[in-house]
Recover the amino acids of this structure.
Protein backbone atom coordinates (compact mmCIF):
# COMPACT_ATOMS: atom_id res chain seq x y z
CA UNK A 1 0.00 0.00 0.00
CA UNK A 2 1.24 3.47 -0.88
CA UNK A 3 2.56 5.48 2.06
CA UNK A 4 3.07 9.21 1.66
CA UNK A 5 5.08 11.18 4.19
CA UNK A 6 5.76 14.90 4.45
CA UNK A 7 8.46 16.68 6.36
CA UNK A 8 8.60 18.92 8.21
CA UNK A 9 5.23 18.63 9.92
CA UNK A 10 5.32 22.33 10.72
CA UNK A 11 7.39 25.23 9.51
CA UNK A 12 7.54 28.86 10.54
CA UNK A 13 9.46 31.40 8.43
CA UNK A 14 9.73 35.17 8.20
CA UNK A 15 8.09 36.87 5.25
CA UNK A 16 10.23 36.97 2.13
CA UNK A 17 12.08 33.74 2.71
CA UNK A 18 12.27 30.98 0.14
CA UNK A 19 11.31 27.57 1.47
CA UNK A 20 11.09 23.91 0.49
CA UNK A 21 8.49 21.38 1.54
CA UNK A 22 9.25 17.68 1.13
CA UNK A 23 7.08 14.74 0.19
CA UNK A 24 8.12 11.10 -0.09
CA UNK A 25 6.17 8.10 -1.31
CA UNK A 26 6.91 4.40 -1.15
CA UNK A 27 5.45 3.11 -4.43
CA UNK A 28 6.87 4.75 -7.56
CA UNK A 29 4.06 3.35 -9.76
CA UNK A 30 2.07 6.56 -9.74
CA UNK A 31 0.17 8.41 -12.44
CA UNK A 32 0.98 11.80 -11.02
CA UNK A 33 1.91 13.72 -7.88
CA UNK A 34 -0.20 16.66 -6.78
CA UNK A 35 0.25 19.45 -4.28
CA UNK A 36 -2.72 20.98 -2.50
CA UNK A 37 -3.26 23.79 -0.07
CA UNK A 38 -5.71 23.45 2.83
CA UNK A 39 -6.84 26.45 4.84
CA UNK A 40 -8.35 25.88 8.31
CA UNK A 41 -11.90 24.56 8.10
CA UNK A 42 -11.84 24.68 4.32
CA UNK A 43 -11.53 22.29 1.42
CA UNK A 44 -8.43 21.55 -0.60
CA UNK A 45 -7.18 23.76 -3.41
CA UNK A 46 -5.05 22.21 -6.12
CA UNK A 47 -1.72 24.00 -6.61
CA UNK A 48 0.31 21.89 -9.01
CA UNK A 49 0.02 18.54 -10.75
CA UNK A 50 3.12 16.75 -12.06
CA UNK A 51 2.52 13.86 -14.42
CA UNK A 52 4.72 10.80 -13.85
CA UNK A 53 6.61 11.54 -17.07
CA UNK A 54 7.42 15.11 -15.97
CA UNK A 55 10.15 16.38 -13.70
CA UNK A 56 8.66 19.66 -12.56
CA UNK A 57 5.83 22.15 -12.81
CA UNK A 58 5.75 25.86 -12.07
CA UNK A 59 2.96 28.25 -11.21
CA UNK A 60 3.88 31.77 -10.17
CA UNK A 61 6.04 31.60 -7.06
CA UNK A 62 5.54 27.84 -6.74
CA UNK A 63 7.71 25.17 -8.27
CA UNK A 64 7.20 21.46 -7.71
CA UNK A 65 9.64 18.75 -8.70
CA UNK A 66 9.23 15.00 -8.98
CA UNK A 67 11.81 12.24 -8.79
CA UNK A 68 9.88 9.02 -9.21
CA UNK A 69 12.88 6.74 -8.91
CA UNK A 70 13.69 8.02 -5.42
CA UNK A 71 10.05 8.48 -4.44
CA UNK A 72 10.37 12.18 -3.71
CA UNK A 73 8.73 15.45 -4.56
CA UNK A 74 9.48 18.95 -3.35
CA UNK A 75 7.43 22.12 -3.35
CA UNK A 76 9.48 25.29 -3.53
CA UNK A 77 7.84 28.55 -2.51
CA UNK A 78 9.71 31.70 -3.44
CA UNK A 79 9.48 34.98 -1.55
CA UNK A 80 6.96 33.70 0.97
CA UNK A 81 4.05 35.92 2.04
CA UNK A 82 1.74 35.83 5.08
CA UNK A 83 -1.06 34.75 2.74
CA UNK A 84 0.88 31.55 2.05
CA UNK A 85 0.17 30.40 5.60
CA UNK A 86 -1.79 27.15 5.30
CA UNK A 87 -1.32 23.40 5.39
CA UNK A 88 0.27 21.97 2.27
CA UNK A 89 -0.58 18.42 1.26
CA UNK A 90 0.95 16.22 -1.38
CA UNK A 91 -0.99 13.34 -2.92
CA UNK A 92 0.29 10.43 -4.97
CA UNK A 93 -2.19 9.19 -7.54
CA UNK A 94 -2.50 5.53 -8.41
CA UNK A 95 -5.91 3.89 -8.61
CA UNK A 96 -6.62 5.87 -5.51
CA UNK A 97 -5.44 9.16 -4.10
CA UNK A 98 -2.96 8.80 -1.23
CA UNK A 99 -2.43 11.95 0.78
CA UNK A 100 0.52 12.86 2.91
CA UNK A 101 0.38 14.02 6.49
CA UNK A 102 0.78 17.67 5.52
CA UNK A 103 3.13 20.52 6.40
CA UNK A 104 1.64 23.38 8.37
CA UNK A 105 3.29 26.59 7.16
CA UNK A 106 3.25 29.89 9.01
CA UNK A 107 4.75 32.95 7.34
CA UNK A 108 5.44 35.67 9.88
CA UNK A 109 4.99 39.28 8.69
CA UNK B 1 -15.70 30.46 -11.24
CA UNK B 2 -17.57 27.14 -10.91
CA UNK B 3 -17.12 25.35 -7.61
CA UNK B 4 -18.14 22.21 -5.79
CA UNK B 5 -20.70 22.80 -3.07
CA UNK B 6 -21.61 20.60 -0.12
CA UNK B 7 -24.51 20.57 2.30
CA UNK B 8 -24.85 20.67 5.20
CA UNK B 9 -21.67 22.35 6.38
CA UNK B 10 -22.09 20.73 9.80
CA UNK B 11 -24.17 17.76 10.94
CA UNK B 12 -24.59 16.28 14.39
CA UNK B 13 -26.21 12.86 14.68
CA UNK B 14 -26.74 10.10 17.19
CA UNK B 15 -24.85 6.83 16.88
CA UNK B 16 -26.83 4.34 14.81
CA UNK B 17 -28.65 6.97 12.78
CA UNK B 18 -28.44 7.27 9.01
CA UNK B 19 -26.93 10.36 7.46
CA UNK B 20 -26.85 11.61 3.89
CA UNK B 21 -24.20 14.07 2.86
CA UNK B 22 -24.89 16.02 -0.30
CA UNK B 23 -22.61 17.42 -2.95
CA UNK B 24 -23.18 19.36 -6.14
CA UNK B 25 -20.15 18.80 -8.40
CA UNK B 26 -19.06 21.21 -11.10
CA UNK B 27 -21.59 20.88 -13.89
CA UNK B 28 -19.45 19.52 -16.75
CA UNK B 29 -17.46 17.12 -14.56
CA UNK B 30 -17.83 13.39 -15.04
CA UNK B 31 -15.82 11.89 -12.17
CA UNK B 32 -16.88 12.20 -8.55
CA UNK B 33 -15.16 11.36 -5.29
CA UNK B 34 -15.63 11.27 -1.55
CA UNK B 35 -12.87 11.64 1.01
CA UNK B 36 -12.81 11.94 4.74
CA UNK B 37 -10.43 13.56 7.20
CA UNK B 38 -10.59 12.57 10.82
CA UNK B 39 -9.44 15.43 13.02
CA UNK B 40 -5.66 15.63 13.03
CA UNK B 41 -5.23 12.82 10.54
CA UNK B 42 -4.63 12.41 6.81
CA UNK B 43 -7.21 12.98 4.12
CA UNK B 44 -8.37 9.48 3.14
CA UNK B 45 -9.90 8.35 -0.12
CA UNK B 46 -13.30 6.67 0.20
CA UNK B 47 -14.73 6.14 -3.27
CA UNK B 48 -14.71 7.28 -6.87
CA UNK B 49 -17.76 7.25 -9.13
CA UNK B 50 -18.06 7.43 -12.90
CA UNK B 51 -20.80 6.66 -15.38
CA UNK B 52 -23.24 5.90 -12.57
CA UNK B 53 -21.15 3.28 -10.90
CA UNK B 54 -18.34 2.96 -8.38
CA UNK B 55 -14.98 2.77 -10.13
CA UNK B 56 -12.73 2.47 -7.06
CA UNK B 57 -13.26 2.21 -3.34
CA UNK B 58 -10.99 1.96 -0.35
CA UNK B 59 -11.13 -0.52 2.49
CA UNK B 60 -12.84 2.16 4.57
CA UNK B 61 -15.84 2.15 2.21
CA UNK B 62 -17.63 -0.88 3.64
CA UNK B 63 -21.27 -1.93 3.47
CA UNK B 64 -22.23 0.93 5.77
CA UNK B 65 -21.48 3.39 3.01
CA UNK B 66 -23.19 3.98 -0.30
CA UNK B 67 -23.08 6.64 -2.99
CA UNK B 68 -25.66 7.77 -5.45
CA UNK B 69 -26.18 10.28 -8.18
CA UNK B 70 -29.95 10.64 -7.85
CA UNK B 71 -30.30 13.29 -10.53
CA UNK B 72 -28.15 15.22 -12.96
CA UNK B 73 -26.62 17.48 -10.36
CA UNK B 74 -26.36 15.89 -6.92
CA UNK B 75 -23.91 13.30 -5.64
CA UNK B 76 -24.62 11.83 -2.22
CA UNK B 77 -22.82 9.78 0.40
CA UNK B 78 -25.00 7.76 2.75
CA UNK B 79 -23.81 6.25 5.99
CA UNK B 80 -26.42 3.70 7.07
CA UNK B 81 -25.77 3.34 10.77
CA UNK B 82 -23.27 5.86 12.02
CA UNK B 83 -20.55 4.98 14.51
CA UNK B 84 -18.55 7.26 16.76
CA UNK B 85 -15.50 6.74 14.54
CA UNK B 86 -17.38 8.13 11.54
CA UNK B 87 -16.94 11.60 13.02
CA UNK B 88 -14.82 13.45 10.48
CA UNK B 89 -14.81 16.09 7.79
CA UNK B 90 -16.15 14.64 4.55
CA UNK B 91 -15.02 16.17 1.29
CA UNK B 92 -16.59 15.75 -2.11
CA UNK B 93 -14.54 16.34 -5.25
CA UNK B 94 -15.08 16.23 -8.99
CA UNK B 95 -13.02 16.29 -12.16
CA UNK B 96 -13.43 16.27 -15.92
CA UNK B 97 -11.01 13.41 -16.42
CA UNK B 98 -9.89 10.61 -14.14
CA UNK B 99 -7.21 11.21 -11.52
CA UNK B 100 -4.45 10.01 -13.83
CA UNK B 101 -4.98 12.98 -16.11
CA UNK B 102 -6.58 15.81 -14.23
CA UNK B 103 -6.71 17.38 -10.82
CA UNK B 104 -9.80 17.28 -8.69
CA UNK B 105 -11.79 20.22 -7.40
CA UNK B 106 -12.80 19.90 -3.78
CA UNK B 107 -15.84 21.18 -1.95
CA UNK B 108 -15.59 22.93 1.43
CA UNK B 109 -16.56 19.79 3.32
CA UNK B 110 -19.23 18.62 5.74
CA UNK B 111 -18.19 18.23 9.34
CA UNK B 112 -19.98 15.20 10.78
CA UNK B 113 -20.13 14.64 14.52
CA UNK B 114 -21.53 11.35 15.80
CA UNK B 115 -22.56 11.33 19.46
Amino acid sequence: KQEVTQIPAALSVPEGENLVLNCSFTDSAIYNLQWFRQDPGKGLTSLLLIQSSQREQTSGRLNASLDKSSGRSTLYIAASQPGDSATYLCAATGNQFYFGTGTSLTVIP
Amino acid sequence: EPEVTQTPSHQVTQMGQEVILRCVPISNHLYFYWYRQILGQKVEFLVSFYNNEISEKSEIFDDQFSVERPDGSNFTLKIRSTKLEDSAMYFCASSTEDTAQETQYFGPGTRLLVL
